[in-house]
Amino acid sequence: MTSSEKNNNRTRSEPFTHFINKMDRLFSERPPKGMLQSLDEFFGSTKERGFPVDIQESKAEYILTATLPGIARNQISIDVLTQAVTISARQPEKPHKQHSPHGMFQKDGTTGSMSRTITFQKPIDDAHVTARHRDGILTLHLPKIRGNRIEIN
Length: 153
What we know:
By secondary structure, the chain is an alpha+beta fold. It has 2 helices and 10 strands. Helix content is 24%, strand content 39%. The chain is flat and about 80 Å long.
């Protein structure tokens, strides 16, 4: 092997070596705040939040229950796809008023949003999906599409 071939091989392996070294450091060094706290801060830093969802399944349908306290019906958006449902909610925060010795000032709040996409194993009959919202609980009835069963000879 010539010296130029050795240099060429070293150049090709350097990015991989650099990656391996970074991975080794990631798992060998302790994060300053702890791994779980660092992950919580990373994923919690976005403005979109999730919400709890409960799914029940029968032969004919999926029943999805989402807990959305304080969210009005007109602030909820539901998108039904072939094998998934996306529920989004947008809630404007109330303006914050504060009294001070120099008078009163008002600060507008930002809007908060929540979104969840739930996938299913069986296709959904989107023409017959029903939704009900009451007391902060959204309930979706998602009928399954029944396919034709084929007998094997």
